Amino acid sequence: MTTLTLQLKFYPGTQNRMIVPQKYYKQLKSIQTIKYGINQSYVECLSHHKDTQTLYISSNLKAKLNLAKHKTITMEFDQNMCTLLLYLGVFIAGFHSEQSLLGSRTDLFRRMSIIGNKLGFRTLFFGHQHILSNESKVYAYYWNGFKWDQAVFHIPSVVYNRIPNRKTEHHPNVMASKKEIESRAILFNHDFFNKWEIYERLMKNNDCSYLLPETILHPSKRKIIDLLEKGPIYIKPIHGSRGTGIVKCTKRESGEIECHYYHRDHAQINRYTNPNSLFHQLFPNGLKGFVVQKEIDLLKKDNSAIDFRIHVNKNEKNTWEVTLLCAKFAGKGSLTTHVQRGGSIHTIDELFSPEKTKRIEEKLSKTALKLSQAIDKEVNNPIGEIGFDLGIDAEGKVWLFEANAKPGFSVFLHPTLNEQAEKVFTFPYKYAFYLHNLRMNKKDYE
Length: 446
What we know:
GO molecular function, one term: ATP binding
Organism: Aquibacillus salsiterrae
Keywords: ATP-binding, Nucleotide-binding
Shape: elongated
CATH architecture of the largest domain: 2-Layer Sandwich
Oligomer: single chain
Strand content: 25-35%
Pfam family, one: ATPgrasp_YheCD
Protein name: YheC/YheD family protein
């Protein structure tokens, strides 16, 4: 592959033509296909003698490619194919050794980079420590087709936030870097959702409020004791993720309160005869920042409750699509269905007949798209993906348990779902293409 950076200008023309400086015509004359992001077209290559640094694109070809207003453009060409290169930045944390340079997600990021390359993108991975603030540049890692390499690039016009957890995202250096990125680019998936804020906003939406289980913020001890008389409850932190901090409480016939929770990633079961002992041990700082929900009698298979993970992504038209559906079981003795807690992942058709699978998938997809559109209207920053944890109760009603702004990649541990990763990973690029063109067409950007 050879690259060339030229100034870009457009001219009125009804043919799919690009006109290159005579200096480069010998290298470029055999090109018949031109690609820009997710679009490509037949092209005829001509030459001009006006200068040595300007590429002219006809208005017809510009429209065919949905080509934005660039001052300069980098061309990558080989034989009869030319790509007008785009860049997607991925803001991450957790860099490690050469063997797993980008942490535990290194191989998935490699696969993502290969997919991006097919769509005309070079993918740049960087952390807060790689931003060269004074120069508006990043010292980023990229997959060169054979190995990870590192070089200095301008901060891309679009950056995908994949900081892995809330603790890291709240680190002062990460927060400062996000502001720096936003001053020079569009950052999508800005941060993790505040669960209570999402709940409150959806409760005000008549199309979605019926999907939400009754939820109480900052519950009192008295309220929790009263709810336990009616059945099992879950107490959850509003800023938690991956099952961290969740406690399931059940009042047994003996009057004891049985609590399931995790301590240092190990499942624990405690029983309390005195509720005050429970609150003192498990909630020593009180219940501020927690919510309580009653347990829902979920659809079961082989006597195990099932919930469902649905991934939705924005496409190049800024509209939502369902990209992945799967079912999750809690592991033996596990409090939640999170894979990190011993849960297992299954395709829906592994568990149900073809007819029931179709009904479930249609019901879940319709619900997830409705929720995505509602959340999108309530969040000020661009969102490119959401992972929904939904349940279906014994009567067939759908419930929303959680909306995740940065759905994890653990679903790809399942071999069938792993085959879908390529499709899912196209969507950050499709949405980045939309955002890039939106930014470039609004103002000049270098």
